[in-house]
Amino acid sequence: MNRVVWPLTALLVIAGGIAHYAHAPVLVVFILACAGLIPLAGFMGRATESIAAHAGPRIGGLLSATFGNAVELIIGIFALRDGLTDLVKASITGSVIGNLLFVLGISFFVGGLRHPIQRFNIRAARSNASMLLLGICVAFLIPAIFTMQPAAGGMAVSGATAVMSLLIYCSGLLFALFTHREVFEYIEQAEQEEDPGHHWRLWPAVLVLLITTVLVSLESDWLVGTIEVVGRQFGWSDMFLGVVVVAIVGNAAEHASAVWMAWKNRMDLSLEIAVGSSLQVAMFVAPVLFFVSLMVGHPMPLVFSWPELVSMGTAVALVVVLMVDGESNWLEGAMAVGAYAVMAVGFYTLPA
Amino acid sequence: MNRVVWPLTALLVIAGGIAHYAHAPVLVVFILACAGLIPLAGFMGRATESIAAHAGPRIGGLLSATFGNAVELIIGIFALRDGLTDLVKASITGSVIGNLLFVLGISFFVGGLRHPIQRFNIRAARSNASMLLLGICVAFLIPAIFTMQPAAGGMAVSGATAVMSLLIYCSGLLFALFTHREVFEYIEQAEQEEDPGHHWRLWPAVLVLLITTVLVSLESDWLVGTIEVVGRQFGWSDMFLGVVVVAIVGNAAEHASAVWMAWKNRMDLSLEIAVGSSLQVAMFVAPVLFFVSLMVGHPMPLVFSWPELVSMGTAVALVVVLMVDGESNWLEGAMAVGAYAVMAVGFYTLPA
Amino acid sequence: MNRVVWPLTALLVIAGGIAHYAHAPVLVVFILACAGLIPLAGFMGRATESIAAHAGPRIGGLLSATFGNAVELIIGIFALRDGLTDLVKASITGSVIGNLLFVLGISFFVGGLRHPIQRFNIRAARSNASMLLLGICVAFLIPAIFTMQPAAGGMAVSGATAVMSLLIYCSGLLFALFTHREVFEYIEQAEQEEDPGHHWRLWPAVLVLLITTVLVSLESDWLVGTIEVVGRQFGWSDMFLGVVVVAIVGNAAEHASAVWMAWKNRMDLSLEIAVGSSLQVAMFVAPVLFFVSLMVGHPMPLVFSWPELVSMGTAVALVVVLMVDGESNWLEGAMAVGAYAVMAVGFYTLPA
């Protein structure tokens, strides 16, 4: 497959660059940048995983936890530079609900078509459940609620939340990789049982990571430059663009592997990708982007709109209840996808 | 008992008809229509069950799932014809919280007086828990949140929600009756162990169903015609009338049998009635009434008021936590009834 | 230790009295009153426990359930006398989130440093979970939601809620002490295994209870008199003072013993203190203060502000998920403390 994907990706990046610098119609640049980012994100993720596999479970875990959502971080940084704070928050929302409802839902559904009941580690599911509640419901609801009154506290509460989220995220790594490693050993084992030829050798992986990071940055720059014009052309709000378009572009590769794992009845890996990715966006990418926003001079308080908050909150509640019994089936997958579909229509109808 | 109930019902229907056509005081018509609907709903339910028992578990399951809340559907259609959309939504709310908190609460309480701890199927309870979250919290919250801003999206999001709810409701039937029947077999068994003389023969049941449907339609017509005047006389809001009065009239017969099952320690059947009925109203009756509202020219977006949404949301949260351990006792029943009582007082105090 | 604490407490009370009657700077009175209340609350709690131990498990249970939060009740009564209803509600909020997040969090964290995984009775945890949902989420959300519209129903719904909470609280005692005692026997046993020399003899305990009640009343009177001036001096809102300062003063002694129990791996006692105390404040102290507010002529509807409601609601949700698996570890403790920290910053930023 790589024989097709590599040249195609190169072609897409080159075409995107030409379109951007030759001032092609904005829609063309937009589509080429989106199309180029999807395989680049995939290569970047695989390079990170390969380096992590060589670095051993602990350093490897830290690497995945830091660079696992690098594409979203890079797009976010470029969007913040242009002051598109609503778009950045919407893409965080989109990553959270997309991973929790769409990716997990499709995984449960597709896996459930082949296996009547699929089981996964119940202790990890419960640990994830409380992390989701803290990192998404508490961390995003508190700044919104405390800035409802015309107070000046938005940045202070956002800052406190960002620091808390990062601290707890690091504590979670300490817990999973050091103090309570045995609880999560089943994931390491499952990963090792996976096709070992999947990983690249160390130095090629580092090279791929470096090159893709540069290319992703270029593409993100081009994408961000077009997004407002495209929104105006189609009558789409920043929120719809962020929640649906940017979130899908940044996560497409992960989506594919989560579903593939579920099809092979490796639900622990599937959950790890979908839920782990949501947590990483909420508790690592979002706080880091908050501090970046201070540095680039477009401060972005972590105050989400009510549609975003309620979408994320109900997504967490639904996934917690679906996950907490350690079992899944196709109906549970259909429920999660149904909830996602309704939210996507909702964001589509928001005025631009 | 039937020797008393049949003639009494006939008498109530005739008296209601005379009162309606002779333009008796509105309050008399209202009370007679309510009193007549209660036993009619009971006969209708029993006829549906009898036909379902003859049709075998699969077709029977589909029948119960479609006609199980026919009375509420009929009252809703007549109320929509008169443009009483707030009343219709309030009666949906009332059915949901009435079944979840009042019926389940009384069942847990009464059953718990006789049996210190009552147990029920934990897998079905968890499946119900996620359905409740999706069909009530997600499906009703999303349209409300996305139409907070002065957008024109109310009908679009409501439509998407209605389609999603119907699809997932049908998926749930497919799941319970076809792909995962063995999970729910314990209910079929429990039903078969119940008094087999309870069911009527096929053709008498069909006849009763036809006749009661006609009578329920008549009574609903009379009831709906009086409800606004009665509300004004007593200073009751549409919402109180819908949440408390209409919801009790439409569900009284089911209430009685759920409590009776709990008293006999058949908690699976009791839960099936109470929770199943809530789900049916939220995921089948509500979306069907949405489409009916489009046809009769009084469009009713599925946008509930905040008191309704919070009542339904907290009812679901409480019931999920009460249910998810697969056990009940009298204190859990008292909690649910207490929550219902506070909500009923709340709706009573709303301005007309 | 007592050899130091008794005289120190006496000294603090006397110094507080002198400062109050000599019209010392308000900040001095405030600090001395806070400092005096902390050990007094500790003695009062220990006297109550000792009397309860002599009175046998049933009467003793009733005693603890009634006088366990006497300090907060007394401060609340004095604050209501002065019409400081916002402060009273904030101190209720502070007790709830302080006990649920801070005390439980520190207990889980400190206990978890010594014991990798700590276990507690899962049935009691689930019973507590539904009580928390009812007594905090339902009971406080319903009055707030039903008085959003400019209705006159605030007091009626608050009254209904207060009556319901008291009834269910008493039902809970009936359940735990009479009808289902065996479920909670493990707590009695754990208590008896605790250092038996911890309890005082009956009459000294009664004497201590009487004297400390008088002293707590005096100190509360002095504290309440200073609190508004102190708030203005520091630019703190009533809400921050209530949520953080008053709540910590009233609960410091319990905090210490909950953490101490966790350190000794007696998680059932630790949970009983932290969660039991939250429930007692929400379902006993709050309704009693509501009725007191009617008597002293400063009616206080149980309508909390949105920051308070959301803080309490997310605290309950997080604790329910942390608790419901019957296990804890240091990371779960860190999560709860992190949530508390963010909320405290939020209340700090509210305008005075």
From TrEMBL, chains A, B, C:
Q: What Pfam families does this protein's entry cite?
A: Na_Ca_ex
Per UniProt, residues of the Sodium/calcium exchanger membrane region domain are 27-177, 205-348
Q: Which residues cross the membrane?
A: 29-47, 59-80, 92-110, 131-149, 155-179, 239-263, 275-297, 303-324, 331-350
Q: Which UniProt keywords apply?
A: Antiport, Calcium, Calcium transport, Ion transport, Membrane, Transmembrane, Transmembrane helix, Transport
Name the domain of life.
Bacteria
InterPro entries documented for this protein: CaH_exchang, CAX-like, NaCa_Exmemb, NCX_ion-bd_dom_sf
Which Gene3D superfamilies would you find in this protein's record?
NCX, central ion-binding region
- Membrane topology according to the record: Multi-pass membrane protein
Q: What molecular function does GO assign, one term?
A: calcium:proton antiporter activity
Q: Which GO terms describe its cellular component?
A: endomembrane system; membrane
Offer one example of a GO biological process linked to this entry.
intracellular calcium ion homeostasis
- Chief localization: membrane
Q: Which PROSITE patterns match?
A: PROKAR_LIPOPROTEIN
Compartmental location: Endomembrane system
Function per UniProt: Ca(+)/H(+) antiporter that extrudes calcium in exchange for external protons.
Query: Its family?
Result: Belongs to the Ca(2+):cation antiporter (CaCA) (TC 2.A.19) family.
Protein name, please?
A: Ca(2+)/H(+) antiporter
Q: What is the taxonomic lineage of the source species?
A: Bacteria, Bacillati, Bacillota, Bacilli, Bacillales
